[in-house]
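Input record, target 12 of the design panel.
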């Protein structure tokens, strides 16, 4: 669904927007000026249309407006008298997605590798209301690493991509949690900015971080590709 937003031809200090809803209803928006920011606009649109800010994708001049995290003034984006924008409504993604790969051993033979199940596995669950939960477990020659995360989608980026923020909840392995060091405690206190990108037909999801982080398993800067599943095929336990 899309909504067209028109900036009126009145004075520059107050910019009268006209919202044309999908049903054809016009809504006058008279309380924004050139000094207001992109976040102000999105919050006002949420009040008027019921579309959460995280599900709003604003297009101006054929380009998607930048992230509201930077929160630029509307005037700096060229949103002034006579400007025309489109609001594309997206829906929150939902479902279970899983990544699993065998990790080769430097010491074990093939039969022992199967017994110890050296591997990396990542679970992502999206609830369709903007919340996401992540679980990771990696088993290696020299030990294992396990953690859980939770967070929420903050913004639609267009093209099936969303920006989310997650926080590490805890280690998923109590025996490891008992031996937390300073490095691990920093991880627990860290927020991670994550891009969630839906694949064709929403049958897969790609995850990557926008900025450098020390939080594992995202500290290597790799992109994780997960496929949709109805039930978990490889448990984290």
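The sequence produced for target 12 reads:
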């Amino acid at each position: 669904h899309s909504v067209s937003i028109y900036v009126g031809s009145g004075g520059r200090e107050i910019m009268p927007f006209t919202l044309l809803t999908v049903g054809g209803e016009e809504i006058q928006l008279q309380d924004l000026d050139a000094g207001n920011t992109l976040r102000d606009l999105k919050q006002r649109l949420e009040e008027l249309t019921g579309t959460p800010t995280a599900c709003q994708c604003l297009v101006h001049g054929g380009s998607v407006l930048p992230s509201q995290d930077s929160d630029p003034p509307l005037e700096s984006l060229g949103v002034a008298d006579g400007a025309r924008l489109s609001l594309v409504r997206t829906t929150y993604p939902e479902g279970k997605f899983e990544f699993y790969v065998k990790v080769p051993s430097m010491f074990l033979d093939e039969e022992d590798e199967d017994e110890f199940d050296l591997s990396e596995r990542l679970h992502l669950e999206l609830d369709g209301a903007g919340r996401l939960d992540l679980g990771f477990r990696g088993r290696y020659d020299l030990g294992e690493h396990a953690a859980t995360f939770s967070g929420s989608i903050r913004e639609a980026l267009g093209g099936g991509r969303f920006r989310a923020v997650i926080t590490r909840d805890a280690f998923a392995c109590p025996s490891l949690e008992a031996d937390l060091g300073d490095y691990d405690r920093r991880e627990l206190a860290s927020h991670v900015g994550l891009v969630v990108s839906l694949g064709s037909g929403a049958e897969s999801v790609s995850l990557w971080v926008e900025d450098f982080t020390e939080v594992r398993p995202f500290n290597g800067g790799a992109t994780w590709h997960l496929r949709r599943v109805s039930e978990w095929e490889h448990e984290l336990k």
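The chain has two domains: 18-89, 95-228.
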